[in-house]
Amino acid sequence: MARSCSGRKHTGTVVAFYLLSAITISSALGVVVVRNLIHAVVFLILSFVGVAGLYITLSADFIAVTQVLIYAGAVSVLILFAIVLTPTGDRGNQETFLRLPALLLALLVAFTLGYVAIDTDWAISDREGFQQTASVIGEALLDKYVLPFEIASVLLLVAMMGAILLVRPDSAMEGK
Question: How many domains does the chain have?
Answer without folding.
Answer: 2
